[in-house]
Amino acid sequence: MLTELLSWSVAERVHERSLEILSEVGFCVPEPVALDRLEGAGFPVDRATQMVRLTPELLDAALDRLPHDVTLYHRSGREEAGFSAGPRFMGAGTPVNVLDLHTGSRRPATRQDVRNLVRLQDALPQVDIVRPTVTATDCGEYSDLVEIAELLRGTGKPVVHRTLAPERVDAAAEMLAAVAGGEDAFRANPNFATLYCPISPGYFTPENVGCMLRWAEHGVPITLLSMAMGGASAPATLLGELVVINADILAWIAVLQILYPGLPLLYGSVSAVLDMRTGLLPLGAPERGMVNAGAAIMARYYGLLSMCGGLSSDAKELDAQAGFEKAVTALPLLSVGADIIYGVGATDAGSSISYTQMILDDELIAGLRRLMEGIAVHDLDEEVALIKEKTPRGSFLGARHTRRVFREHWLPNILSRESYETWRAKGETIEQACRRKASELLASHNPPPLSAGVEAELERIVRRYAGPGFHFGP
Amino acid sequence: MSDELYDKLCQSVVDGEPEEAAELAQMALDQGLDPLDCINRGLTPGIDRVGELFATGDYYLPDLIIGGDAMKAALAVLEPALTQGRERQIVARVVLGTVQGDLHEIGKTLVGTMLTANGFQVTDIGVDKPASEFVAAVKDSGSTLVGASALLTTTMLHQQDVIEALKEAGLRDKVKVMVGGAPITETWADKIGADGYAEDAISAVALAKKLVSG
To answer: Which of A106, A232, A278 faces B106 most closely, judged by CB atoms?
Structure first.
């Protein structure tokens, strides 16, 4: 059973074996200033190899400081993201390709795509957390700041993104403060979390180390997001891969909590297993849903919110494969209660974002959420009275009870349930329906606006890097 | 006696046993066998067999890599013993590396193994390498082919730097450049003026053969 995918005692074993690796071999921190600080904080550091070891005492101290009440808010700062209501679904990202809305062909994504896809995510009711989903390839080196600006302007929902260079973190944090009304207001009700991936096993790039430490200065929630590849950067068994995932995350939970006690952290995994025929990394495989569900359980073991890759697919178009893979990678995450499911809009093994897939994903999520409600158990008096009255051969269709309760049944908007003749007469495929709906939403949806003053402030901050030509435009 | 040893060398590659392959190679030299014969009659048929088994779906990437490692382990013993005029025939010399700012090496190393197994002389310069190091390695090794790898959307831009640096060094018309990595597409390869793109290590070998023969 998926719900028994990983028992508590097995989670404990993953924890203990992770600590064994971290205390005996350690992890690499290729950044001299960070090494100084870790040595000062009591971590055993080998200068020559840049390897840092984690002692059980340091880990205990770190876990004692780890906050367990981390949450994200909407941009308004008033409404919480709603983790207690079940999994939150988040946009995928951020590849350099998009499947064009009109032609369906793959092409490099632009800032206009970022803007459109942010707007779509803001409009779609099942999308809870918004990402740029694609890289603005027409914005060069500073695309990260442009994307963050577009996120903050284009949606009122919580948003997640990262910077690529430590020297741009302050500018990004300045934007967050501008939107929240000061850094203290942001820290009290953060609407933004960042994310960084290790190179498994046991390594973060100097840039990513620098970025994480800089974000930590601003108290911004950080997701430690493992991207392990079973059979390539981790053992090929799922449990062995989970140890790599967990060790990489646990190392940095310790680093960040020792250096920044109480810093909000999220536990993330977008891991997968290698396809041994091609060496490519399929994201629609059952193993992907399984290993990331394991990571969700490990997150809970530490009392952290989990962010897990799923609702993903290797399909190149909106087809049967996409439907199967989206479901098969989402269901394990749903069944273990993952907090954030990371995949809306993704296709082509995460190498492309698709407008039409994003629309269909919204529909699939609604169906999956209905599924997860399960059978509501309640007093049966009313139903039994009705059955007695209608037996034999009576109809329930006109009963007041039916009229009152049937709305809990899920009704799709895009999937076809009409008769063959009606479907034929309508003459619209699912893909065409998704394309039409995306176009309608892009034309009609207006995200909640920022004040003109805040918009101008964001433009001013981005211009410091991207040049005087940067402006939001209409 | 020698035929039996060639067969064993061949089998050590097919079975993917690097330690055994190196031991057998040393044994062959100790018995006075010609190292070139050991390569041509032992290792090469072995790696060809590995390739066939992969093509028929019986072997997978781990089998290919460990088979290639067995071949490399035996070559490391045999090649220094090759005598003048009896050298191993190579298809071409190739420089491989991951571009600046990018530390990913699994895909690049896999391509290197596959090229070595297919008769290329590979100079692997490693990861996070600026364009100037690609150029220097081409000069040092006399390579006619360069493979530049990038896994990140942020570092793929540096594949273009490699091509530009080869132009500046006056080498562009003497070497073919192939690019690869997860975010790379045919369109990108065309845009930056690369000679080819392959989506995985197997097609990289076919591409390399095409580029050096064309």
So the answer is: A232
